[in-house]
Amino acid sequence: MFRGLYTATSGMMANNRNQQILTNNLSNANTPGFKGDQTVLRAFPDQLITAIENGKKGTIVPQNIGTLTTGVYAQEGIPSFLQGPLKETGNLTDLVLMDELLPTNPETQQKGSMVFAVAAENDEVRYTKNGSLTVNTEGFLTTSEGFSVLGENQQPIQVGSTDFTVQDNGQITLDDGTQGDRLWIGYTENPEQFVKQGQNLLRWEGAPEAAPQFIENEALLEGTGSFVKQGFIEQSNVDLTRTMTDMMTTYRGFESNQKVIQAYDRSMEKAVNEIGRV
Description:
Blueprint: H1 3-27, E1 37-43, E2 47-54, E3 60-68, E4 72-79, E5 86-88, E6 95-97, E7 113-119, E8 125-128, E9 133-135, E10 141-143, E11 148-149, E12 165-166, E13 171-173, E14 179-182, E15 185-188, E16 194-198, E17 201-204, E18 213-214, E19 228-230, E20 232-234, H2 240-275
Antiparallel strand pairs: 1-4, 2-3, 5-20, 6-19, 7-8, 7-11, 7-15, 9-10, 12-13, 13-14, 15-18, 16-17
């Protein structure tokens, strides 16, 4: 059997998966707080090809010819947590977590990330970067998908109306001047351990000790003062131009592998219909 068929087929499958991820990025280009995924492609293990030759006195002498690549696969899609551009809305319920002000890890040369905590289905704690919030009919602060935003004590926050202010550290002041709850804002140095769950929610899949921890004071972020910016939303960090270019490149890769399979198909057709008659 032609080994190239398997290699070309795996290439088509990897390009198809990459195209799906790019399409999802493109469809969420206008979703506040959305983090675009990057596809990680990995090659299957190479195989060593060895020819067996007869040596002197009936001995067998192996001779290495080289390696054979067995294809590629799309291992996973990893979100990029680079901060997207900010858009001023003037709405008091729109909040941005200022990741761009976070210190850079000297070991990884990367920034960490801050997240809001929300109560998802079955009251499970999940995280989100989408700060486009709203106030429901009962006066509780929720995400645009309807999930309750959690405060410092991991309880839903009641603000009463949309006339409230948020201080730099997440403390909420109500319209009558009284102090409300404080937003639960978590920080982690390893945002790549988040897994997307849908509806702009993130689930932590890393080690429990590395999970996002509540920012109690400025010392945790080495003096970074403004955690939150009110009246703004963080737009998607998807680069439309690059995404469209990557989609065209992926399509061409899929098409090239398709032509390889068609060439093998024609070769097998000749082998069956013409060589077979001989």
